[in-house]
Amino acid sequence: MNHQVCGTRRRLEHAASNAVRTIKPLGLAAALAVTLCGCAEHARNVLIPIDVEVPNTSRVDMLVMTTRAPSSQPGELFTGERGAGRALDEIVVSVPPDANRKVGDVQWPAALPADPALDFATVKVVDMARSQAGSWFRRVGTNGNKLLIFVHGFNTTYEEAVYRFAQIVHDAGTRAAPVLFTWPSRGDLFQYAYDKESATTSRDALEALLARAAGDPNVSDVTVLAHSMGNWVAMEALRQMAIRHGAISPKIKNVILASADLDVDVFKSEFLDIPSPRPRFTLLVSTDDQALGISRAIAGDIDRLGEIDPSVEPYRSKLTGADIAAIDLTKVRTGDDINHTKFAESPEIVRLIGARLIEGQKIDGDSPSVDAEVGQTLSQAAAKVGTIAGKAVVATDVGGERR
Q1: What secondary structure does DSSP assign to 148-215, as a single string?
Q2: What is the model's pTM?
């Protein structure tokens, strides 16, 4: 769920009224939305390339696959509606000099054209044929031919997904070639049900992307990073791949599930449909994630995977044989008021993703590469569980009701 929920109070109150009449728990979402209206407005339709070079800026060259419908609005590229097929674009985003920004922030332009010295800016957009993806990877892939595929969450427009992924790639410091998979989210807090169905319609396309990536002889390994509702799409695609082919491609080595808006029982079922050997699964969880608290209230008060406490039962020790690491971010503090995007906004965690998790390394609380504050948090989690940082495992006996 994108925490930058802006707009007029009147629009939110009207939407909240309609939502509450339909689904009472969404009144919680309405209250949350009103508290978030203080965020600053920024320019829209930012995907119009500008031809300006500024010293010390960085560039993120990504491949973007989408199942969205194309837009006739310049700079928007794709809407939140469902498309008839799949589209592929190369997009290059300029990131301001490190001296002019804070790690974890997406610095949106207040007006167009963007100022690359201060703002994220689009510098290249190319409509690509699928046959061109291989040449893009050979040009961009520089780190042992690794590929990072990101699946965004609920309430995210196309341009928001592009800029957020550019921030993650840049701040993580990863050299894995970045691929964004963006599905038809309307970017509206009160379109949760629509977004969920749109995510479901996109699982075949993501499976095809994963299969294409794993089948490319130039790709050595693939990491899947999913956020929020994007975890539903990711797990469904992986499950389908396993059922269709009898296994997950061994090239898909790492699956990182951040703030997963996914029923724990559904995750259990999906996970068990993937036979061993499985990719290395890592959960990034936070018990104070307010967005997932709302999702849980709507969905029958069943825990969402991204809000579990990995130090308590039933998540602590029953199912360690599944070898799923859960890193508890509850004590990590960022500018995210609802604690749903810590994985991207915390400088320590986003660097941890780039330096360790994408490289396929296990994380323990004593790791010297983890900054002091986060290292202490991970050490405490590891001490509680006695193994990998806050290790939680999910298999046949994953719990359901909140305890």
Answers
A1: EEEE--SS--HHHHHHHHHHHHHHHT--SEEEEEE------TT-HHHHHHHHHHTHHHHHHHHHHHHH
A2: 0.85
